[in-house]
Write a structure and sequence with these properties.
This protein is α+β, with helices and mostly antiparallel strands. It is about 40% helix and about 25% strand. The chain has helices spanning about 5-30, 35-60, 95-105, and strands at about 75, 80-85, 120-130, 135-145, 150-155.
Length: about 160
């Protein structure tokens, strides 16, 4: 599914424009126009824009939104098998599960090198125990299988 039909249409128009510019560039070389070298740059840049627009429109996947989930920042990602997100202090009761599932669903698998193909996603909060002393508390954990895309909430 295309992310934005306007972006896909722009890519098609830019592709047509780069084709017309390519023909103009060939005619410029045959007739030895003074701007023939500039036409090469304009043509190649227009073709690059066309390919970029079409590629982005086709490959874009919007973020997954789950009901009851809160938007949280990822505070640690080792690039392979562990992602930690920080829960806000005012996290509503019952929102930890959907929130960690949303973070796990929105992970992209490309570039991750987990030995077993699993990525553990944890939602944690740092609780203050006293002056200068704090303790991280894991509120929820989910596991995502990168090969199948299945996400499971851990007990």
């Amino acid at each position: 599914m295309a992310a934005d039909p306007i972006l896909l249409t722009a890519g098609q128009w830019l592709g047509a424009a780069s084709g017309a510019l390519a023909i103009t560039t060939v005619v410029g070389y045959l007739r030895r126009w003074g701007i023939r070298f500039r036409l090469v740059g304009v043509t190649s840049f227009t073709a690059l824009l066309a390919v970029s627009c079409i590629t982005f429109a086709v490959s874009y996947a919007p973020r997954v939104r789950l009901e009851g989930a809160v938007s949280v920042p990822v505070v640690y990602d080792n690039g392979s098998d562990l992602v930690v997100a920080a829960a806000p202090v005012e996290l509503p009761p019952g929102a930890a599960g959907p929130t960690v599932l949303e973070v796990a669903e929105n992970l992209r698998g490309s570039g991750r090198s987990s030995a077993d193909g699993l990525v553990h996603v944890r939602l944690r909060r740092v609780e203050n125990l006293g002056p200068g002393l704090s303790k991280p508390v894991v509120l929820a954990e989910a596991t995502r299988n990168l090969t199948s895309g299945v996400v499971q909430l851990q007990p």
